[in-house]
Amino acid sequence: LWGTMMRLDPRAYSNSLEAIQALFKRSFAKDISSEFLLWRFVKNPYRETLVCVAKDGDRLIANYSACPVRIECDASLIPAALSMTTMTDPEYAGRGLFTRLASELYSNMYEQGFKIIYGFPNVNSHFTFVTKLGWADIYEIPTMSLVLGREKISVSEELLLRFDDRFELIYDI
Known about the structure:
It is a single chain. By secondary structure, this protein is α+β, with helices and mostly antiparallel strands. It contains five helices and five strands; from the N terminus they run E-H-H-H-E-E-E-H-E-H. The protein has helices at 10-15, 17-28, 34-41, 97-111, 126-132; strands at 4-8, 50-56, 59-73, 76-88, 116-118. The chain has a five-stranded mixed beta sheet with strand order 1-2-3-4-5. Strand 2 and strand 3 form a beta hairpin. It is globular, with a radius of gyration of 18 Å.
């Protein structure tokens, strides 16, 4: 077998932070901050870590994570989760890691009393969510583009938005 699968608790997640960041870089060719990862998956308002990973030896090769939330329905708070970071090392793509990790995490969440998981999958994962994991579309967000000409558009520097990886806690629980 190409690897082992496991659910990460908060301590194991925190100890795996560099490996998770390295996997993100290999999967998406960009960086993700440790502060964001810790806030979203360890220090979130519910202090629950919903993460399954696959390893090949000591190397982290895939990750599926969800962020716990509560949804109000008929004056009751229902345990739910927002499907988040799904990533597979490109060298291990096409081996069913995404679906196996998702199924394992969903099973664990069900045992913990979670009732709903929802998300906004990209075009790479949408098909798998629907055909292999049983998700149902409740609405498709239109994504469109139109090239109006062949010439390259030049944008002045002052019009560009600047982003950073900071996240400031805006609530107190």
